[in-house]
Amino acid sequence: MPLLDHLIELRKRLIYALISFFVVFFVTFYFAKPIFSFLIEPAKHEGYRLIVLDIFEFFFVTVKLSGFVALIVGFPLIATQIWLFVAPGLYRHEKRAFLPFLIATPFMFYAGCAIMYYVVLPYVINFMLTQYAPPDIEKTLRSSDYLQRILQLVFAFGFAFEMPVLLTLLMRVGILSSATLKSKRRYAIVLCFIVAAVLAPPDVVSQLALAAPLLAFYEISILLGGWIEKKREEEDKKAEQEATADS
Prior knowledge:
Layout: H1 3-30, H2 32-39, H3 41-45, E1 49-51, H4 57-86, H5 92-132, E2 140-142, H6 143-160, H7 163-172, H8 178-183, H9 185-199, H10 204-246
Parallel strand pairs: 1-2
């Protein structure tokens, strides 16, 4: 395919991806109130209430929330457009190799978001304000600050849950090996805690809650890599036997 045709196809896919994003954005903007009510439920359950301190504060909270949800919900639609652009240039075996990872990427991201919301967030809210705040202080949170922390935690845990997908893909295409991951384990442990310190809010509970799954996923990636390498060896051995039989 000529370069100009590639550019035209790329432009078409980008337009479709932007349309998908803005459609989800405006739908989310319309339903922003129930979505925000859902997000503040862990805080309300612990006895806290949220306030607005500026006339335009909740409007900007709604815009930020809509953009965030549009990225999360619209990600499979955007990823589909990327796949439709890349897939025609791949061989059949390459399509079979990449398609499972394309499906696993949003699934793992949503799993990270769910773990953060249902498991980590209530504990963080209760621990931080109960442990460090005097009992006579009123339990009140600012809506914009609360949403910022929520988005920070969601992105942190969502991307953390992408680690096994990324590492397994790199091993699937031969860039990494399970032996390499084993030999670099001590550096990976340090890196996991650095990533948790950067992505998570500045409290020990959130950082440990993020570092733990990162370390677990690193070990899981090593196991998956060993299984992939064993399967690849069996396929290569089978191909050699078929080639020998044909000759």
